[in-house]
Amino acid sequence: MTPFDFVLLALAAWRLAYLLAKEDAPFKLMARIRQRTALGGLLTCIYCASVWTALLVFVLWQFEALRVIVTVAAISGLALMAGNYTGSSQQ
Predict the structure, then answer these.
(1) What pLDDT, in 10s, does the model give residues 9-53?
(2) What's the domain count of the chain?
(3) pTM of the model
(4) Do the domain assignments include residue 13?
(5) What range defines the domain where residue 15 resides?
(6) Helices within 1-66 (DSSP H only)
(7) Distance (Å, whole) CA 49 – CA 35
């Protein structure tokens, strides 16, 4: 794994963990899932969610055809981080 791959996977894992723990998503889908599941901290704690999303992202990365999913999540994560850093995010 190259350093670039590592950064890409870290960004993708952060993006997915943030989606699970903090965002409502379209139609409040994630909010409803968090309310109706008994997964405890997995869906409410970004630190807990990051462990499981890191594992998921790593497994997806092993399959060449699924790397596009990881790459899109990483690009989205970087865009959100840039928005938060510059103060231009809507949340």
Answers:
(1) 999 999 999 888 888 888 888 888 888 887 766 788 888 889 999
(2) 1
(3) 0.82
(4) yes
(5) 3-86
(6) 3-22, 29-36, 46-61
(7) 16
